[in-house]
Design brief:
Elements lengths: L4 E4 L3 H9 L4 E4 L5 H6 L7 E4 L8 E4 L2 E5 L4 H6 L1 H6 L1 H10 L2 H6 L2 H6 L5 H4 L15 H4 L22 H7 L3 E5 L5 E5 L22 E8 L3 H5 L1 E6 L10 E10 L2 E10 L6 E2 L1 H7 L6 H11 L11 H17 L4
Parallel strand pairs: 1-3, 2-3
Antiparallel strand pairs: 4-5, 5-8, 6-7, 6-8, 9-10, 10-11, 11-12
Length: 330
């Protein structure tokens, strides 16, 4: 471990001031990803600002829907009666996402900020533009079985590993953020994470010192609650990151699809919401044939690498299965 300064923040203003004042300062909450990265010498913070005492754990109903505190743990969120009743897709995704021990420690804000599990990112002896801008991408021509098939660039082919965010994309969530100057803003979840482009070192659109306060969910559609499903395909049934995942939700009217959400995980640098698949579904009868057409649309622009072409067909089949289960046809 490298030496660092430890600061315990008394309130949000003190926290943002302590982080924004030092370029290599980081917030510390559950630490389930950050501490691993520090042990691997990937992250080298010079200051850790402990925010675990801040009052950001509340999960409460609001006029506009539900507010989920950034410091509520994944376990608290998945098991909360308001989440289980009105947003079961989110509960499914969180429970699929990690072991019970990790869910008990990991916070919602930290979950959104978790970094890729690309082996080249973790191996400091290998080039990685995400870890060190301009050094190259070892995965581009290396072993890239777990890497992106959509939205990648020549600079980076890493994927975003989280499950919770994939469900949040389907639920039209927003992220409430406090800037160091005290101003708050809402970021649509679909605008929170970034594609790599030529700046793969930036995972999201937060500025240094920004503090996540809460995740805001809109008033749920009763149909989206009843007709939703999170499917995670992985190498083993126990805790593992997805090869492909799908968050699917439907609003049905007598068997006709009025609204649809289709989001794929572990196929791109961010959860991949497919407007093309959703457009195919809306106005159609819910059946396997239309789900297959939607799956084709969702993966039409896929660009597999040398070792991950399997993700294209796996993605198609996963979209169909998730939609079948969401529609209760399977």
């Amino acid at each position: 471990m490298r030496p660092f300064e430890y600061v315990r923040a008394a309130d949000s203003a003190a926290a943002t001031a302590a982080v924004s004042a030092m370029p290599q300062a980081r917030y510390l909450a559950g630490g389930s990803n950050l501490l691993d990265l520090m042990k691997e010498d990937v992250e080298r913070p010079t200051r850790l600002v402990d925010i675990t005492r801040l009052p950001l754990r509340e999960i409460q109903r609001t006029r506009s829907g539900l507010s989920i505190g950034a410091l509520a743990t994944n376990s608290e969120t998945a098991n909360h009666p308001l989440v289980r009743e009105s947003y079961p897709l989110l509960t499914q995704a969180i429970v699929a996402g990690a072991s019970g021990q990790l869910r008990n420690m990991a916070t919602n804000g930290g979950n959104l900020l978790q970094r890729t599990r690309c082996n080249y990112f973790y191996d400091t002896s290998m080039p990685c533009n995400k870890r060190e801008a301009g050094s190259g991408c070892g995965a581009r021509e290396g072993l890239n079985k777990i890497h992106a098939i959509l939205g990648w660039s020549e600079s980076c082919v890493a994927t975003y590993p989280g499950d919770m965010a994939t469900a949040l994309y389907a639920l039209d969530a927003k992220v409430r953020v406090r800037a160091p100057d005290g101003r708050e803003r809402l970021i649509a979840i679909t605008d929170f994470h970034r594609l790599p482009g030529d700046t793969p070192q930036r995972d999201n659109n937060l500025e240094h010192g920004d503090l996540i306060l809460a995740i805001e969910l809109p008033v749920p559609s009763g149909d989206f609650a009843r007709h939703s499903h999170y499917l995670k395909v992985r190498d083993r049934a126990s805790y593992a990151f997805a090869m492909v995942s799908v968050a699917a939700a439907l609003q049905l009217d007598g068997g006709t699809i009025r609204q649809a959400r289709v989001v794929l995980g572990s196929v791109a640098h961010k959860p991949w919401r497919s407007a093309e698949a959703e457009a195919v579904l809306v106005g159609q009868r819910a059946d396997e044939a239309i789900f297959q057409r939607a799956a084709e649309a969702a993966l039409r622009d896929a660009r597999p690498l040398a070792h991950n072409a399997y993700k294209v067909e796996l993605g198609r089949r996963s979209v169909v299965r998730a939609l079948m289960r969401a529609s209760r046809l399977a």
